[in-house]
Amino acid sequence: MSEDIFKTIQGMIDAHPVMLFMKGEKNAPQCGFSARVVQILTHLDVPFDTCNVLSNPELRQGIKDFSQWPTIPQLYVKGEFIGGCDIVTDMYQNGELEALLAEKGITKKA
């Protein structure tokens, strides 16, 4: 994997407080796992940005290598890798995700 793709990924994570690397777009997810994480973040009413890893094969593999996590979607909050769909779902269901977002200063959309 090229150093450039890691710099690109790090740049996206740094530029967006809540960044979701997913299959598809926020308004048109292309897999059920990505759709579930979008649904959770939308329900929590927090601003988030997405990156469609299907648009670039190097990016699709690069994010897996970057995080050392084998699956997509991948959620980052304030630069911290949170996890994939199962972890995000579990954290949402037990209240940890909302608490983490609040702790990191991520507030609901105005």
Automatic annotation (TrEMBL):
Keywords: 2Fe-2S, Iron, Iron-sulfur, Metal-binding, Redox-active center. PROSITE patterns: GLUTAREDOXIN_2. Gene3D superfamilies: Glutaredoxin (3.40.30.10). One of its GO terms (molecular function) is metal ion binding. Residues 18-82 form the Glutaredoxin domain. Pfam families: Glutaredoxin. InterPro entries: Glutaredoxin, GRX_PICOT-like, Monothiol_GRX, Monothiol_GRX-rel, Thioredoxin-like_sf. [2Fe-2S] cluster binds at residue 31. CDD domains: GRX_PICOT_like (cd03028). Belongs to the glutaredoxin family. Monothiol subfamily. NCBIfam families: Grx4 family monothiol glutaredoxin (TIGR00365). This is Glutaredoxin. It comes from Oecophyllibacter saccharovorans.
